[in-house]
Amino acid sequence: MANIVIADHSNESRMMLRNLLEHDNHLIVGEAADGEEAYREYERTKPDLIILESELPILDGVAVLRKILYFHPHASILMISTVNEASTVLRAIRLGVKQYIVKPVEAESLRRAVRETLEQLEQRQDKAESKLAAFLNSFD
């Protein structure tokens, strides 16, 4: 279904996310345990979605988010965090996160967030294709 990168400092969390997402027929194209590695994996794979933990070491999730969106403004990013404060959630959403999930991650919450994020991506792609088709048809 979708190519996904998982960035979480915990090997256990990455394995749990990987198992759940692969069970739903997604392809995990990269994993990262810190922020620098997360950005490198994003650049290397250009996934449909990156699941980004906010508390990553070396370069935190918000810094990775900013860096990805600076170079790829339409990137689909789902953030997971242990922080459940309204100000933190709003800040992440204002910066461009498509979905925000608080740990511990429940399977159904993750499935719903991934599905909604991928639906948003598909809608953006359909809209871009329609605009391109209209532009090309204007030359006929």
In short:
With 140 residues, the protein is of the alpha/beta class. It has helices at 11-23, 35-45, 61-71, 86-95, 107-137, and strands spanning 3-7, 27-32, 49-53, 77-81, 99-102.
Describe, in plain words, how this protein is organized in 3D.
54% of the residues lie in helices and 18% in strands. The chain is α/β, with parallel strands linked by helices. The chain has one domain (3-137): Rossmann fold. A five-stranded parallel beta sheet has the order 2-1-3-4-5, with helices on both faces. The longest helix is centred in the last third of the chain and has 31 residues, at 107-137. The mean pLDDT is 89.
Per CATH, the class reads: Alpha Beta
Main β-sheet description: 5 strands, parallel
Share of helix, binned: 40-55%
**Using DSSP, what is the number of strands?**
5
Strand content: 15-25%
- Radius of gyration (CA) equals 16 Å
CATH topology: Rossmann fold
Tag the structure with descriptive keywords.
single chain, 140 residues, alpha/beta, Rossmann fold, five-stranded parallel beta sheet, 5 strands, 18% strand, globular, Bact_response_regulator, Protein CcdB
